[in-house]
Amino acid sequence: MCSLENNLFQNGATWLRADFHLHTKADGEFSYTGEENRIGLKGSPTWVLKIFTPPPKPKGKIFEGEGQPAVDQLVDSLKGLLH
Fold first, then answer.
1. 8 Å CB contact between 33 and 40
2. To the nearest 5 percent, what fractions of the chain are helix, strand and coil?
3. Which of 30, 42, 62, 81 could disulfide-link to 37, CB 3.0 to 4.6 Å?
4. How far apart are CA 70 and CA 77, in angstroms?
């Protein structure tokens, strides 16, 4: 096994490889002998009451150009929001 000290990135992150398998009672791989109200929807601490699609956001504004002229356009646009 290699040392983690040699694999750390500048900000301390490290790679992790994982393989997850979800088993349910229906696939026969799951065996739970505890209380039924501790698993599934009944055992969930949160219940979704409503699922909805949020309204679309208005399109943004693109300022063309480079440097100070583009900054001036942005500042003028922001000043218009304040008045």
1. no
2. 35, 0, 65
3. 42
4. 11
**Tens of pLDDT, residue by residue, the chain (83 residues):** 455 555 556 666 667 677 777 777 677 776 777 788 887 778 888 888 888 999 998 888 888 888 898 889 889 988 888 86
Cβ–Cβ under 8 Å, residues 25 and 32: yes
For 61, the enclosing helix (H) or strand (E) is none
Query: Residue 82 corresponds to which tokens in the numbers above?
Result: 């304040």
55 close to 49: Cβ distance less than 8 angstroms: no
